[in-house]
Specification:
The structure holds two protein chains of two kinds.
Chain A lengths: L3 H7 L2 H13 L1 H21 L2 E2 L7 E2 L3 H8 L1 H32 L6 H9 L6 H11 L6 H8 L14 H26 L3 H9 L4 H29 L3 H7 L10 H11 L3 H29 L9
Antiparallel strand pairs in A: 1-2
Chain B lengths: L6 H49 L16 E3 L1 E3 L6 E3 L1 E4 L5 E17 L7 E4 L7 E5 L2 E8 L2 E9 L2 E6 L7 E4 H6 L2 E6 L2 E10 L2 E7 L4 E8 L7 E4 L7 E4 L8 E4 L9 E14 H7 L1 E4 L4 E9 L2 E7 L5 E8 L2 E6 H4 L3 E4 L3 E9 L2 E8 L17 E4 L4 E8 L6 E5 L4 E2 L1 E3 L4 H8 L7 H32 L5 H13 L6 H10 L7 H4 L7 H12 L4 H8 L4 H12 L1 H16 L3 H6 L8 H11 L4 H21 L1 H13 L2
Helix pairs in contact in B: 1-16, 5-16, 6-10, 6-13, 6-15, 7-10, 11-12, 13-17, 15-16
The chains are: A mainly alpha, B alpha+beta.
Chain lengths: 307, 652
């Protein structure tokens, strides 16, 4: 295998011009990548070990930020809060989306109508969603507590309650996340060859068996994709905390990304915020790798993807 | 033949039956799924519907219990020529038709029966009796209990026992005002060697000894709505001492508190006592008010009465008389008398949201007068101001109507009275929300900013992502695969990991608090969209390009003229994703934008929320407007949404 420079020397004139065109055309991306992603990413690592308050020149402080991070109760709490959010939103949200997709995969009247209904919430922006729900979570007059009242349940204060603010935000996460996941599941289910179901039926499999032994295994790559995507975006949840609670009450909804935002742009601890951002990157990387590793046990690929 | 003939006509029928039963089964089979989808669908759509409904309500109908499901308006009518509007109620008349009325007052009654009806009084253990049920019998409501099939009414207590009489004995029971029964002295009366408490009650026919049976019930006194036009506003202190008098004109001897008011003929009924404030329409105030120094005025302590508002008047040096609205040390805010005559008294309760405004150098409290949108043609809207300047002190006023003008009073149980209401959508919330000023910016500014950012981002993505994606799909070059892996890797990079350094770059470039950081990065591509477009380009056969190449077209010409038209659906997908991301982007807006004139819709909404806590209806109107662009886009381009998302998913 030749390295790119050796490859270059072996090229014909025409191929060289093609290669030059390639480099020219990808310049916008390459420039953007270097200036707005690659370099900042590395710089962020350096800033993690500095005292940087925006107006000064970053001062290298060694492991001071790390020590501070380890001792920072609010940081650990935000990590716990975010993990709880991820665990609350991703698996249950996926189950709900899969359930809706299973219903919509049947030959039904008004399938397109229902798909629109379930997808619609996801196109509404984070601020609007949060405001809409703040109104449903109102302790005295909100619909949620009124509805609970019909069953004789006294609903909590939701967004003002330390125990219930995070679950409230999780409910919002389900609501706005179901649409895209459902569409992806639907495509996955539609892609399963009907011959498999026919074979299963001949073997006398009932509906539940067909779901458990055909649909689920065949859908496992899709489930895996949705899980990874869900985890990555759930770890970065920002809007509800910023709009509704500002991280409160008592940091109960101070999500990780809101914590970074607060440290960097409200308290101007940009070096320390960079360290937290890098830790977030590592956490997401580890969790993703973990999901990938564990997926080898349950993800079934029918054949290798040919590129 | 004989064996075939019966089966032959039956055969097509059978096929038809099969088809029909299949169709039927198809419908039935769907029912559980449709029910589940509908239940979930209600949960999905309800928050949106609720938001839209709230955006069309008056503020006070949002946070109330019981819930008001739809924006409603209570029908009202003028109270004479005052600025007060009275609620209209409907009650059934004798023929059962609901007629429009206003409320004159309410009275609490209890059910009583003459002691003579208690001939069969007996004492029964309380536990043996069932629990009481209210029943309307004859002219009164009674609490009826059962004892082994017999229907009884309790009239008193006897230790642990209840004193009861059979229901049929008390059919003559009637309503008596609770106040009078409580005020009368009660005496024990012996019946069947049992003792019950009875009171002496004065009726039109004389005196009667009665027993209080209960239960209490409230009855409303209603009058036909035309009487509202006779209402007058008088100073509260001018009300004389009240007297309980029977109402005139065929009103069945109903008694009600009545007042003598100097200057008004006959006894008056009091509708309400409340604080009223003199106000002047703010446009008239701005146009005509002048600040005058006290030294330039001659005071002769003549007070003017301007539609009930008493104001000091003074004479200017040129001899004109003016009215003094406000004084601040020796500065006086004045208006000519003809302008002062536009002053109206409005109920204090209908004034909202004070704003201090400087008029002719003096600061005046300006409030919104809640202009009712009322479904009643009798209301004279020209009389009602919109935003008003408040002048003078609140005064306690009484709203009265002359008793002798009543043509009949309807005495009905409170339960029969219904407020007259109808659906009323307050579209004004939308215009108010859009006109709201945020330090010089309005929602329209936010919209403009969001639109600029979104459109420039779309242009940027369409140019950069297509070029890069096409290069990755078609050209051969050393290192291409490595670079493509890099593209894929950046898809995994969380935005937060580069947040601070990127902010530093834009700050060093002096671009913080401009729109530039919000869109400029789109001109350098986006890993996800590049990946998406590359997949599209890869599916297009190469023959087309080769043919064009042989015709002498350059690579760029081929790209623009041949390839781009072929991937139009993908370009739509790019447009839609970019629109959605940028329109809903809160994080970058929160970081980069500081001054309201640069806010995007998302950030503007957040600010709105923080500033106007008590105006949820306006906030919801703004939220609805903010969601409209993406929702509209979704409805028009649903196919591309679904395709784009499906494509990303199937490549996992």
């Amino acid at each position: 295998m030749l390295n790119p420079i050796q490859q270059w020397h072996t090229l014909s004139k025409r191929r060289r011009s093609e290669a030059l065109t390639f480099y020219l055309w990808i310049t916008p991306w390459l420039f953007g990548f270097l200036v707005f992603q690659g370099w900042p990413f590395l710089q962020s690592l350096y800033l993690s070990f500095t005292d940087f308050r925006l107006l000064n020149i970053p001062q290298f402080t060694g492991l001071e930020n790390v020590q501070r991070l380890i001792a920072d109760e609010r940081f650990w709490k935000s990590l716990r809060v975010t993990s709880f959010y991820v665990l609350g939103v991703v698996p249950i949200g996926n189950m709900l989306a899969l359930a809706v997709a299973m219903l919509l995969a049947q030959k039904l009247a008004a399938v397109n109508f229902w798909r629109t209904v379930y997808f619609l919430p996801s196109v509404i922006g984070g601020v609007a969603v949060a405001l809409m729900w703040s109104f449903i979570f109102n302790p005295d007059f909100g619909l949620l507590n009124v509805a609970l009242g019909w069953f004789g349940i006294r609903g909590p204060g939701w967004l003002t309650s330390e125990a219930w603010a995070l679950p409230a935000i999780i409910i919002m996460g389900w609501w706005s996340g179901i649409g895209p996941q459902m569409v992806i599941y639907l495509a996955g289910i539609k892609g399963i060859p009907s011959s498999l179901y026919e074979a299963a039926e001949m073997d006398g499999a009932n509906g539940w068996h067909r779901f458990w032994h055909v649909t689920l295994p065949m859908l496992s790559p899709t489930i895996f994709f949705n899980l990874i995507n869900g985890v990555i975006s759930a770890f970065q949840v920002f809007d509800p905390a910023y709009v509704l609670t500002q991280g409160g009450p008592n940091d109960a909804t101070r999500t990780y990304s809101f914590g970074i935002f607060e440290e960097a742009f409200r308290l101007s601890n940009m070096g320390y915020a960079s360290l937290q951002a890098w830790v977030l990157f590592i956490v997401i990387l580890v969790v993703t790798l973990f999901v990938m590793r564990s997926s080898q046990r349950y993800v079934y690929y029918e054949n290798e993807v040919d590129e | 033949m004989t064996t075939q003939s019966p089966s032959k006509p039956a055969k097509p029928l059978e096929a038809e039956q099969v088809a029909r039963s299949n169709a039927l089964w198809n419908m039935l089979r769907q029912i559980p799924s449709q029910i589940l989808l509908a239940l979930g669908g209600v949960l999905m759509i309800f928050p949106v519907v609720w938001m839209v409904s709230a955006s069309l309500k008056p503020e006070w109908q949002i946070f109330v219990r019981p819930i008001i499901w739809l924006p409603q308006d209570w029908h009202k009518t003028d109270a004479g020529s005052s600025a007060r509007l009275l609620n209209l109620y409907t009650i059934p008349n004798d023929a059962g038709v609901r007629i429009e009325t206003i409320e004159l007052g309410a009275r609490v009654f209890t059910t009583v029966v003459d002691v003579a009806a208690l001939g069969r009084l007996r004492s029964v253990e309380a536990e043996l009796l069932g629990s009481p049920r209210s029943e309307r019998i004859g002219r009164a409501t009674l609490s009826v209990r059962e004892l082994s099939g017999e229907r009884l009414v309790a009239v008193g207590r006897d230790g642990a026992n209840l004193l009861v009489v059979p229901l049929e004995d008390v059919r003559e029971a009637f309503n008596a005002p609770l106040e009078e029964i409580n005020a009368a002295t009660s005496t024990g009366v012996a019946v069947n060697s049992l003792s019950v408490q009875a009171v002496t009650f004065k009726t039109a026919g004389g005196e009667q000894k009665v027993v209080n049976l209960g239960p209490q019930n409230e009855r409303a006194l209603m009058a036909e709505k035309t009487i509202a036009s006779t209402a007058q506003l008088v100073p509260a202190e001018s009300l004389g001492i009240s007297e309980s008098l029977p109402l005139p004109n065929n009103t069945n001897g109903i008694r009600l508190e009545q007042f003598k008011v100097p200057g008004l003929e006959g006894p008056q009924l009091l509708l309400e006592r409340a604080l009223w404030r003199p106000v002047l329409d703010v446009t008239a105030l701005r146009k005509n008010a002048k600040t005058v120094n006290a030294s330039q005025l001659k005071f002769d302590s003549v007070k003017g009465d301007f539609n009930g508002a008493k104001l000091e008047t003074a004479i200017l040096e040129n001899g004109d008389r003016i009215a003094v609205l406000l004084r601040d040390a020796d500065q006086m805010l004045t208006v000519p008398l003809e302008v002062a005559n536009q002053i109206v008294l409005v109920p204090s309760a209908s004034l909202q949201r004070p704003v201090l405004e400087t008029v002719a150098g003096l600061s005046v409290r300006v409030k919104d007068f809640t202009l009712p949108t009322v479904r009643d043609e009798t209301i004279n809207f020209s009389r009602l101001p919109n935003a008003v300047g408040i002048i003078g002190e609140a005064q306690e006023k009484a709203l009265v109507i002359p008793a002798n003008r009543l043509r009949g009073v309807l005495d009905v149980p409170k339960d029969d009275v219904q407020k007259r209401s109808s659906l009323d959508l307050k579209w004004r919330n939308y215009s108010d929300a859009m006109a709201r000023d945020f330090a010089g910016a309005t929602f329209l500014t936010f919209f403009k900013n969001s639109l600029v950012i979104t459109i420039l981002s779309i242009i940027g993505h369409l140019i950069s992502c297509t070029l890069v994606a096409y290069a990755f799909a078609r050209f051969r070059a050393p290192g291409k695969n490595t670079l493509f892996v890099l593209v894929l890797a950046t898809m995994m990079l969380p935005e937060f990991a580069t947040l601070v350094p990127v902010y530093k770059i834009f700050r060093d470039l002096g671009m913080v608090d401009t729109l530039t950081p919000m869109f400029i990065r789109s001109f350098f591509g986006n890993a996800f969209l590049i990946f998406l477009l590359r997949q599209f380009f890869s599916t297009i056969p190469r023959d087309l390009e080769e043919a064009a190449f042989l015709d002498g077209a350059t690579r760029f010409q081929i790209f623009v003229k041949v390839m781009l038209p072929l991937v139009t659906p993908a370009l739509m997908t790019v447009t839609i994703f970019t629109f959605l991301w940028r329109w809903n982007d809160l994080l970058n807006a929160a970081i980069y934008l500081n001054s309201p004139e640069n806010y995007t819709v998302s950030l503007g909404l957040r600010t709105f929320m923080g500033q106007y806590v008590g105006e949820f209806n306006l906030l919801m109107a703004a939220t609805t407007v903010a969601s409209i662009p993406t929702v509209l886009l979704f409805f028009f381009a649903q196919r591309f949404f679904i395709e784009g998302i499906t494509l990303t998913g199937s490549k996992g």
